[in-house]
């Protein structure tokens, strides 16, 4: 047990190190989300607080969705086949997928918090229950990372990973996105928290299903 | 026109033809009376079994994908694809019939209903599965990776189809606080037709699938 | 055109919307039929291949 935790942390360290060495990619992602927010702001030509809450919320999550797909798509594509083979001889596939999911969660958290602050800065912040909204961001980040990591693994094996990534991930992510949209809308309207428990439970259940399946299915994926 | 007259009219037919076949009496005979649905409640025998059949076929497809991952036999993968194919056929037919029925009872061919949208997303998921299969040349690789995606897609499809619609308002029975059919819409007379119809549609789906599987096997044998 | 659609709609609504059921049945049967025809053409192609093989 202790051994596997040690290996897991080593793998995590490797992910962060790799990202740090390719800082331009990380900076690119950060710029991507800031740019997307700004483009939306300019396209709507909106003064602060002029968007209706529902548009405000949906727009934010759509931006996050595209950022997530772009950010997570490269988690398998960026590593060369030879290097992947090398990692696979060192660690078990379960540990690799877990470390990737954890790393992507952290990445998504950073991206979504940055996105949220920039978004709230330029478009105004109508959120009435900020802690619940942040919890939603957290749940969303875990869910996006968990479901998209396996899809990215699948897409990276095919001929045209970029298109396939989008085609495969949009329908897969949708139930999660709908639930998260609902919770965040509740938080936005400042509804009583007991209204959202049901949805939070479902998001947690979906996260659990997706992580378990990634854990179970990834060994079959990397063998090829 | 009262129910009794209506029934007589339908059983005897417009020109006084006597339908005395058992099935036609069931089909055109007694039904519980519905305010807006009127006679179109009989669509329950044709529209709903398509969905039940589709879900059963998809479950079978996922089971064969698991079987493929365990055994590595290409035959299992072939069965999984054909089950998914037939399920897509059932799904498309279900969409078409549902859209027609909705047009005459809910007033719109595609009302913004969570169940419709969930199913549309589910169809996208499985169309993406077919696209994924198309993007590999190597047989073993295609089989393994698409099996992984198939299992993953089914695991997301289940909450999408069973949980998401129940949380939001829906026109369909059994969702968003609406009573499930059976409470008001169906009585025992209708169940006598409905359950056999479900079993029959499912078995027909299995039979169609079996034909395509046998065809593929012959083709595979010929290619060798 | 408009009149045609309304009259078609009216026809389908007659007799307690039983014609909606008829069209639904027709759609299901036609859908299966097209699938079967496609399956049949695949069988036909396979048969031609087998014929060619047996001739050689």
UniProtKB/TrEMBL annotation, chain A:
Subcellular location: Membrane
GO MF term list: heme transmembrane transporter activity
Keyword Signal belongs to the record: no
GO cellular component terms, semicolon-separated: plasma membrane
Keyword tags: Cytochrome c-type biogenesis, Membrane, Transmembrane, Transmembrane helix, Transport
Residues spanning the membrane: 24-44, 56-77, 101-124, 130-151, 163-181, 201-222
Protein name: ABC transporter permease
